[in-house]
Design a protein that fits this description.
alpha/beta; 7-stranded parallel sheet; 7 strands; 272 residues; Rossmann fold; 13% strand
């Protein structure tokens, strides 16, 4: 079957994916920037579930990080059956030159590295006629979000890419799914300087998101939006003009305009 490779596995939704897959008996390859956090999670999961856990420290916001990561996996003879592209970070700020470096890192991490990892690992899955690719998008993929303009755009890329790739691979034995969570309580809010309690949207826990995502991948659904309220908002929003949805998108960021950008390339992707 191969191991489950999870990026951004040191906290938040990524760590929850690791714990859920370990509870199902899957061997893991955990990737994140924090080696210390990875080692702590690895030891805990190995003791609890008796699975093999390999940790690889890497900064996936660097342009050649995907190639380097896959090379390390091959050097270690690590077979990957499921890829969970989860790593990401948020940035709550008006668009402008002040945040251009962070935005470039975001584009590399959310889109370029995700695309490269998928492309590099796909051939082995095709040889086995079996595999899974689970990409963490967001409900922001369905409309623009002021003060999170690039973040929402990167999540739209992930959703579109996942839907198209799934169709290309139909009948191959390889499932592809994008999970589009709403507001999910992880450390990404603190890092991005967002107070989730200032929005008018419900805030969920990561565990239901992860369980919904894995079920959807197993059923080869193109995407899944966990949570009834999020489903209503997304599907109901298709009846409204996009200009209206962009205005409503303000609720997905915060009710007051941020004064300056706050961000840090963390591994806690998967929130709105």
């Amino acid at each position: 079957m191969g191991s489950v490779l999870i990026t951004g596995a040191s906290s938040g939704i990524g760590e929850t994916f690791a714990r859920e897959y370990a509870s199902r008996g899957a061997d893991l390859i955990l990737v994140a920037r924090s080696e210390e956090k990875l080692d702590a999670i690895s030891g805990d999961l190995s003791r609890r579930h008796g699975v093999r856990v390999t940790t690889l420290q890497a900064d996936l916001s660097l342009p050649e990080s995907a190639e380097n990561l896959v090379a390390r996996c091959r050097e270690g003879s690590l077979s990957i059956g499921t890829l969970v592209n989860n790593a990401g970070f948020g940035l709550n700020a008006p668009f402008g030159p002040e945040s251009i470096d962070e935005l470039e890192s975001m584009l590399i991490l959310h889109n370029l590295t995700l695309m490269k990892l998928t492309a590099l690992l796909l051939p082995d899955m095709q040889k086995r006629n079996r595999g899974g690719i689970l990409n963490v998008s967001s409900i922001t993929a369905f409309q623009g979000v002021p003060f999170n303009a690039v973040y929402a755009a990167t999540k739209a890329f992930i959703l579109s890419f996942s839907e198209a790739l799934r169709e290309e691979l139909r009948g191959s034995g390889i499932n592809v799914c994008a999970v589009c969570p709403g507001l999910t309580r992880t450390a990404i809010f603190d890092i991005a300087g967002i107070d989730p309690d200032k929005t008018l949207l419900p805030i969920g826990a990561p565990e239901p998101v992860v369980k919904s995502a894995i079920r959807a991948l197993e059923k080869n659904r193109p995407f899944v939006v966990p949570g009834l309220y999020n489903k209503i908002m997304i599907h109901g929003g298709r009846l409204l003009p996009r200009s209206v949805m962009v205005r409503l998108g303000m609720l997905l960021a915060r009710n007051d305009k941020p004064e300056k950008p706050r961000s840090h390339p963390s591994e806690t992707a998967g929130t709105a």
